[in-house]
Amino acid sequence: MVLETISKIIKIQLPAYLKKLPLPETVGGFARLTVSEWLRLLPLLGILALLGYLTIRPFLPKKKQKDCIINLKIQKETRPVVNEIDIEDLSSTKVCYCRCWRSKRFPVCDGSHKKHNQLTGDNVGPLVLKKKIP
């Protein structure tokens, strides 16, 4: 039953619809179409536009998603952001450095990763450096 319906649409109704379409023979003929003729052309033009978009979509450049960017605001003018810290300069026995790029005191961790993890379901945490005291 379903195949019969599809067959009838493709073999009978679609050719009848296409024959009744007011397709002008020249490009200038589109300017002379009435509103009702444009409305009859609209489904065909929509399908052609959709097929054209689906055809070229794989070749379009991918948009960067803001969710994919890790560093949202820290030293954006620098490529890449690099922080060097001498181990000898560590004043305390334990220091935590940010790995989520959300810290207000970057590169030192201020715990901003906790809020980031809650919002995104991520599991980032700080880099912890411990200094052994002899």
TrEMBL record:
Membrane topology: Single-pass membrane protein
Domain of life: Eukaryota
SMART domains for the chain: ZnF_CDGSH
Co-factor binding details: Binds 1 [2Fe-2S] cluster.
Pfam family membership, one: MitoNEET_N
Keyword Phosphoprotein attributed: no
Localization of this protein: Endoplasmic reticulum membrane; Mitochondrion outer membrane
Keywords per UniProt: 2Fe-2S, Autophagy, Endoplasmic reticulum, Iron, Iron-sulfur, Membrane, Metal-binding, Mitochondrion, Mitochondrion outer membrane, Transmembrane, Transmembrane helix
Domain Iron-binding zinc finger CDGSH type intervals: 80-119
TM regions (residue ranges): 38-56
Cofactor: [2Fe-2S] cluster
InterPro entries, per the entry: CISD1/2 (IPR045131), FeS-contain_CDGSH-typ (IPR018967), FeS-contain_mitoNEET_N (IPR019610), MitoNEET_CISD (IPR042216)
Protein family per UniProt: Belongs to the CISD protein family. CISD2 subfamily.
Protein name: CDGSH iron-sulfur domain-containing protein 2
Species of provenance: Coilia grayii
